[in-house]
């Protein structure tokens, strides 16, 4: 039996959602504490926030969730940006600001997100990485309740959460916008879970579609509900007439596409089940209402269908409103940057889409690689961006320029592209003719989208300022652009030292309590391995059904990243009408090839490591 480990004390720069009070482990004694190590750029972390909501509600008198914000991007270290994110994503528990990642190191976190469970006596009893742990957590909490009620060490009652004051603004963290016929604008009011129609002045509210509360109810404008909606796409009139609705909405947190009849504001679900996608990659067309989606973030009409930026699984999907079918369009689900034929590309949280004036190119804001990319003639290309861990604010030649987590793009009639460079608080412009990147506006509060109006003006969805802002006249001319030589950043993750030659990859999977591996529909496990650069692996890339794999690492490549995706199918054991489950995890493992390095690489799929 391993020694019990005391939870390290909670220390950081400050606290949110506590009324200004610092929280210590002594304050939490007698409660079950769940520490959620997250960063607000990370889609997997956002998934976990939503997975935890039912647990917080069910166990509110015994469970205290503490968000520990350990940032990736420079912008995420800004305390004001963190406070905005906590409100934006409806975080209803205390959050500790950990800008130097001290708590991250104290609790030995190695990936975003990581969850650590502390028992009522102050000992760490479990750690898990990734998402999809809600069911296992519920069973663990039930066990801890039973154990500590019997010991007399469980104390029921209120936790330290103090809700902040409700703000008074017309919009709250708007996400995306589209111009309507007649000059009005439709905006996804993400933090208020609704759509808002604005007059041409971009300020006067004409109507609201949705109640403003989180939900997934179809129906009339006054009764429908959304959950953090983002992208909006107007259908061509002939398609809208057949489909029966005019607008497609990326209902992000619901994992749905919704259709809206603009005349009445009626809302209908058109794609998705409401369950998050955790399946296998295929190239089939599916009934749109029966397929699972994963955090659709933007939508655009391209290639005679709606293309969906599926941020949650690093892909593009398509949706046909007439045939009512949907399927995968581009990407393998590997989170990285690789160009090529659409089925083979790698992306990382695509979050913004725009179509060129001639309809030939689909532009993409690939946020986690801080990249701008485009699709044309069945292939994807990168215009600006170098990878997952390189970002900054640098203008000039596109192959040297840097962005920081862009969320929106806007194609201009002259062929150039505007970029909502979100974490730099800027609007950037890429000109394919010259290959140059320039800054046309800065000092903005997390711009998340750009809209070209019918009269040629450009509006910026200034999300963290809760408004739409017009770009100054002349900003888009060559004379109006600046050249910025700002900082370059590279996030360095400590690599794993491996030896050249044979390396055994072992993915360790333990079914959650009460579950067993399920081979009803074929092999219960699947493992996909690739490398960046590809030359890193001499042997071992590809897909198998065994969670252990012999790899051969090249001695000619000094470092790289192993991309690993593993999944396991389980079902409830020894119960009638057993439910089925699919556990899936993606890793990007930095490795350095050295003499005397490791010959075995273990990864934990479920991640439920009980101490």
Automatic annotation (TrEMBL):
NHL repeat ranges, renumbered to this chain: 403-433
Keywords: Repeat
Domain of life assignment: Bacteria
Residues covered by the Thioredoxin domain: 1-146
SUPFAM superfamilies xrefs: NHL repeat (SSF101898), Thioredoxin-like (SSF52833)
CDD domains according to UniProt: NHL-2_like
Name of the protein this chain belongs to: Thioredoxin-like domain-containing protein
Organism: Micromonospora maritima
């Amino acid at each position: 039996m391993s020694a019990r480990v005391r939870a390290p004390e909670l220390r950081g720069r400050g606290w949110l959602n506590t009324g200004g009070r610092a929280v210590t482990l002594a304050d939490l004694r007698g409660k079950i504490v769940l520490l959620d190590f997250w960063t607000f750029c990370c889609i997997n972390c956002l998934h976990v926030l939503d997975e935890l909501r039912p647990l917080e509600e069910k166990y509110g008198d015994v469970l205290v969730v503490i968000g520990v914000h350990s940032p990736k991007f420079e912008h995420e270290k800004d305390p004001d940006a963190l406070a905005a994110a906590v409100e934006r994503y409806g975080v209803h528990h205390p959050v500790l600001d950990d800008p130097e990642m001290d708590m991250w190191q104290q609790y030995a976190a190695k990936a975003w997100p990581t969850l650590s469970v502390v028992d009522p006596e102050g000992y760490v009893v479990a750690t898990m990485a990734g998402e999809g742990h809600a069911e296992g957590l519920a069973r663990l909490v039930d066990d801890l309740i039973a154990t500590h009620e019997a010991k007399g060490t469980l104390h029921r009652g209120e936790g330290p959460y103090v809700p902040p004051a409700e703000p008074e603004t017309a919009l709250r963290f708007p996400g995306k916008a589209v111009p309507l016929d007649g000059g009005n604008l439709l905006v996804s009011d993400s933090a208020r879970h609704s759509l808002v129609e604005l007059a041409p002045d971009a300020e006067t509210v004409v109507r609201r579609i949705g109640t403003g509360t989180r939900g997934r109810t179809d129906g009339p404008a006054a009764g429908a509900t959304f959950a953090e909606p983002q992208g909006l796409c107007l259908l061509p009139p002939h398609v809208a007439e057949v489909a029966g609705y005019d607008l497609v909405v990326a209902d992000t947190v619901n994992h749905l596409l919704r259709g809206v009849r603009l005349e009445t504001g009626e809302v209908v679900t058109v794609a998705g089940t409401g369950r998050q996608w955790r399946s296998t990659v295929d190239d089939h067309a599916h009934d749109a209402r029966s397929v699972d989606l994963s955090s659709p973030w933007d939508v655009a009409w391209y290639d005679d269908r709606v293309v969906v930026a599926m941020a949650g699984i690093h892909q593009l999907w398509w949706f046909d409103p007439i045939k009512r079918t949907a399927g995968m369009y581009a990407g393998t689900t590997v989170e990285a940057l690789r160009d090529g034929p659409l089925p083979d590309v790698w992306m990382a949280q695509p979050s913004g889409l725009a179509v060129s004036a001639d309809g030939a190119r689909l532009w993409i804001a690939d946020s986690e690689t801080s990249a701008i990319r485009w699709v044309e003639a069945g292939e994807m290309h990168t215009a600006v961006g170098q990878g997952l861990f390189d970002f900054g604010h640098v203008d000039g030649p596109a192959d040297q320029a840097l962005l920081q987590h862009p969320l929106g793009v806007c194609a201009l009639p002259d062929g150039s592209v505007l970029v909502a460079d979100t974490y730099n608080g800027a609007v950037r412009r890429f000109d394919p003719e010259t290959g140059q990147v320039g800054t046309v506006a800065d000092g903005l509060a997390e711009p998340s989208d750009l809209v070209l109006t019918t009269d040629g003006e450009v509006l910026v969805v200034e999300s963290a300022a809760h408004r739409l802002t017009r770009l100054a006249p002349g900003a888009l001319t060559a004379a109006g652009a600046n050249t910025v030589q700002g900082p370059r950043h590279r996030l360095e993750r400590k690599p794993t030292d491996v030896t050249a030659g044979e390396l055994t990859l072992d993915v360790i999977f333990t079914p959650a309590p009460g579950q067993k591996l399920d081979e009803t529909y074929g092999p219960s496990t699947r493992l996909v391995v690739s490398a960046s650069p590809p030359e890193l692996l001499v042997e071992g890339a590809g897909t198998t059904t065994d969670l252990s794999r012999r790899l051969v690492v090249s001695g000619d490549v000094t470092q790289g990243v192993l991309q690993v995706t593993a999944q396991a199918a389980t079902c409830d054991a020894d119960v009638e009408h057993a439910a089925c489950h699919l556990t899936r995890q993606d890793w990007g493992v930095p490795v350095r090839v050295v003499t005397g390095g490791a010959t075995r690489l273990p990864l934990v799929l479920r991640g439920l490591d009980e101490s």
